[in-house]
Specification:
Low-confidence stretches: 62-70
Number of domains: 1
Order of helices and strands: EHEHHHHEHEHHEH
CATH architecture: 3-Layer(aba) Sandwich
Largest sheet: 5 strands, parallel
Structural class: alpha/beta
Distance between the termini: 13 Å
Helix content: 40-55%
CATH superfamily: P-loop containing nucleotide triphosphate hydrolases
Length: 199
């Protein structure tokens, strides 16, 4: 496959989106970026990885960021988003890759060589997966999963002009409930027949 697009993956919490993206990248022989973006942003900004990890999905209106308003031109998570967006554009320019989260579909919206995917799954499946695979513990796992989804939606809706999870903004929406292998096979077929322009 010589015309592999850049693949962005947005996902509901617990749906398996990260695992799907990671295996897809491995089978296509292209780079995979998820937590790696935190390390890259840390090097670019001079901030610590832990600080970026804690702040990258918090709203700019958070009280924490009000403390920085006097010294910073933009709230810290806005600055981090801009740094990560720059890195995402640079990675896409280098060639095909899989990028998970961080509004990558929106950041790369002007490119015609990008396949945008949204991974979802039933709540019961996600709650069980959060417990079994992620080893999360909560008195009410469904509420915990909903809270994580809300954080992702708030982040995406704040930094983009789109609505998180709205199928109109993605090329494909796939349920992760049938497993990683099944989703990867669907995506490989989508990549093979991708009609977008190559770079």
């Amino acid at each position: 496959m010589s015309n592999i697009p850049v693949i962005t993956i947005s996902r509901e919490y617990g749906s398996g989106g990260r695992a799907i993206g990671e295996k897809l990248a491995k089978e296509l022989g292209i780079p995979f970026y998820n937590k790696e973006l935190i390390l890259m942003a840390a090097k670019e900004s001079g901030l610590s990885e832990e600080y970026i990890k804690k702040t990258e999905q918090m709203k700019a209106t958070s009280f924490l960021y009000g403390l920085y308003m006097g010294a910073q031109q933009l709230p810290m998570n806005d600055q981090i988003f801009l740094v990560q967006s720059k890195i995402i554009r640079e990675l896409a320019e280098k060639g095909p890759c899989v990028i998970v989260g961080r509004c990558a579909d929106y950041v790369l919206r002007e490119r015609d060589d990008v396949l945008n995917v949204f991974i979802h799954a039933p709540m019961e499946y996600r709650a069980q997966r959060a417990k079994d695979v992620y080893e999360r513990e909560a008195s009410n796992m469904v509420d915990y999963v909903k809270k994580q989804d809300k954080k992702r939606a708030s982040f995406y809706n704040y930094f983009s002009q789109n609505k998180w999870g709205d199928a109109r903004h993605y090329h494909l929406a796939i349920s992760g409930q049938y497993g990683v292998d099944y989703a990867v096979e669907i995506l490989k077929r989508a990549v093979e027949t991708f009609p977008g322009g190559g770079r």
